[in-house]
Amino acid sequence: MTDAHDDTSGAPREYIAAIDQGTTSSRCIVFDRDGRVVSVEQKEHEQIFPKPGWVEHDATEIWTNVQEVVAGALAKARISKEQVKAIGITNQRETTLLWDRATGEPVHNAIVWQDTRTDALCRELGRNVGQDRFRRDTGLPLASYFAGPKIRWLLDNVEGLRERAERGEIMFGTMDSWVIWNLTGGTEGGVHVTDVTNASRTLLMSLRTLQWDEKICNSIGVPTALLPEIRSSAEVFGTARGGALDGVPVASALGDQQAALFGQTCFSVGEGKSTYGTGTFLLMNTGPKAINSYAGLVTTVGYRIGDQDPVYALEGSIAVTGALVQWMRDQMGLINSAAEIETLALSVDDNGGAYFVPAFSGLFAPYWRSDARGVISGLTRYVTKAHLARAVLEATAWQTREIVDAMKKDSGMELTTLKVDGGMTSNNLLMQNISDFLDVPVVRPMVSETTCLGAAYAAGLAVGFWNDVEDLRANWRRAAEWTPQMDAAERDREYQFWLKAVNRTMGWLDEES
Ligand SMILES: Nc1ncnc2c1ncn2[C@@H]1O[C@H](COP(=O)(O)OP(=O)(O)O)[C@@H](O)[C@H]1O
Ligand SMILES: O=P(O)(O)OC[C@H](O)CO
């Protein structure tokens, strides 16, 4: 079936397949031993908005899409399943699904990470249990972003579900668990597992023991019978049963942002990356030490390879970056394509005095304010849509600056270069803005599909396809670099205006609203 043979021995070449179950789409990418993309297949799924602030996905549609993209990627690569040495999984994090153990049917749509329906529940938990307790033990602020409160909401709102859960009839999973369980046989013996990176986004796992914290589970109201076994990010969980990859070991799982950290080969303390997609997530490797954040970041597990020590990371999560460009296109109709934002912004020299803070679902790091809502500040009649386009791009760059400042406060480490990836990195003006506002060089690698690459790397390490992380480092190659060009006084002046605009978003919603 294949025409892909090793040049020297004539043996069929070997590959790793990675599945990225993301917020807007599922994709499968086949990689070769040099970490090069051999084929890609991708399929979008429906975004379901039942009420303002609510976002859901149909997990059955997602599983169908995953099977299709896997078959499609293999067909495009013109390789057989025997040539695929392992499957790696990466996924949108925090998105929460409960399904019936016996039938495999989801009991409700998955509740997506962006969904804010658990705001009130989080406030109540904060009053009853205390914010500090969650931050100290799980590394996370108590916010609707994370999975634990979403599970509680489902148990409280789907009739009879709590009783079924307590009888052990229900399974919880983030999308890694759902994909792995289905891939490995589903109701016919599928394995119910998650990895430490995904578990570290639930508000239910102790960062110290890397196991479910029973007391915290009780305080949120989540029975532990629901929960998957927590495993490392790189080990063989089981073997695919049926489908295009029947018989291939499933050998990694990482949340997508941790996978990008891995794919960008940020293996040393102080190395970090920022992924610019719907939202933006900047992670910095802090080594075997979990650093508590006092500056509004999240402490999370970066990765764990087999039984090696875990590697922790500090994360700055920004909810709305590329989503603001989508909003300018879809809701405002000011541009026809995402790429057009750059052309429009380049038609003027500056923002004309306008600052746009896209607090559409409150503000995530470093503020964690669910009462904030978006503002455009500094408007005069002078401002045109081109100035707004500038303000839209600058919003992403200033939000990155705030995260980098918080990283410095928490870790005492200075970022010397920022590695970037994700859909927005094709925007040169934005990349220049980021370099200017941070005053550090910004670099983008040749393989921009770092999320899938990270999952492939972890799976490849687990099955001995690659020997160690040094093998992987050798694959990283720079494709583009932007260096700071901005005058320091101007940077400081602009930053003060940005911070003033951020201040104006706060307190828009009160308990009543
Ligand atoms: N040239 C561009 N300039 C600015 N934003 C862009 C550009 N191209 C894509 N985007 C934004 O990037 C996002 C898509 O990036 P991607 O990495 O695929 O996101 P995700 O993985 O979150 O779905 C969209 O929100 C889109 O608006
Ligand atoms: O699927 P993405 O790329 O939008 O990533 C979503 C993040 O994992 C949310 O925490």
TrEMBL record:
Database matches in PANTHER family: GLYCEROL KINASE, SUGAR KINASE
A Pfam family reported for this protein in Swiss-Prot or TrEMBL: FGGY_C
Annotated EC: 2.7.1.30
InterPro entries with a match to the protein in the record: ATPase_NBD, Carb_kinase_FGGY, Carb_kinase_FGGY_CS, FGGY_C, FGGY_N, Glycerol_kin
Protein's job: Key enzyme in the regulation of glycerol uptake and metabolism. Catalyzes the phosphorylation of glycerol to yield sn-glycerol 3-phosphate.
Catalytic activity field: glycerol + ATP = sn-glycerol 3-phosphate + ADP + H(+)
HAMAP family: Glycerol_kin
Class of the enzyme per the UniProt entry, highest EC level: transferase
Residues the record lists as binding ATP: T23, T24, S25, T278, G322, Q326, G423
Sample GO molecular function, one term: glycerol kinase activity
Annotated positions binding glycerol: R93, E94, Y145, D256, Q257
Binding site for ADP: T23, R27, T278, G322, G423, N427
Keywords carried by this UniProt record: ATP-binding, Glycerol metabolism, Kinase, Nucleotide-binding, Transferase
Chain's gene name: glpK
Protein name (Swiss-Prot/TrEMBL): Glycerol kinase
Pathway(s) served: Polyol metabolism; glycerol degradation via glycerol kinase pathway; sn-glycerol 3-phosphate from glycerol: step 1/1
Matches recorded under Gene3D superfamilies: 3.30.420.40
Record-annotated membrane-spanning stretches: none
Domain Carbohydrate kinase FGGY C-terminal: 274-462
UniProt binding sites for sn-glycerol 3-phosphate: T23, R93, E94, Y145, D256
Activity regulation (UniProt): Inhibited by fructose 1,6-bisphosphate (FBP).
